[in-house]
Amino acid sequence: MNKSKAKNDEVAIRRMKRWAWIFSAIVFILIGMARKPIITLPEGWSFSFLPPLYSSFNAITACLLLLALYFIKKKDVVRHRKTIYIAIIFSVLFLLLYVVYHFTTPETKFGDANHDGVVDAEELLAVGKWRVAYLLLLLSHIALAAFVLPLVLFTFIRAYTEQFDKHKKMARWVFPIWLYVAITGPVIYLMLRPFYG
Q1: Residue 18 placed within a domain
Q2: CB 3.0–4.6 Å: which of 61, 156, 165, 186 could bond 55 by disulfide?
Q3: Residues 161-179: b if buried by 16+ CB within 10 A, e if exposed
């Protein structure tokens, strides 16, 4: 490899990493802002159909990740790569729909049976320890999702730029975190589903 090509490759990798950080920062900001609706929908409009849809995208991502793992264990790099591309597309679709929903719809609270936005003492008693389990699962899901997003992008960049040894080392510990986030998303939705208005 000549020096000029090596330098160009290095510059391209740095540029990709910079864009990965920028994309991650934008996602963090949007998710942080999405706790309260800031966009009012026209009369009669509702995005209440989005939570089961974006949760399904998370479930599909989990299945694709397991399929990608199967392919790479069989040394089928081409199918592994295609499957990971599709998993990333479903993850991006999840993020887009999640942000749209939370920018336009009040937050649903676990235990809020009467949909008034407050979990009162009676409602807390009704859900009991399930609320603690839900909150612990939600906290781990959110924390790991925030942690893993840039790492997924960097793992992808390493494969895309043919740094396969670095990709493999990173994927060994990034993959289980991404899979956990993809699986716990639909579980959280199913736990929260009875409390959607």
Answers
A1: no
A2: 186
A3: beeeeebeebbeebbeebb
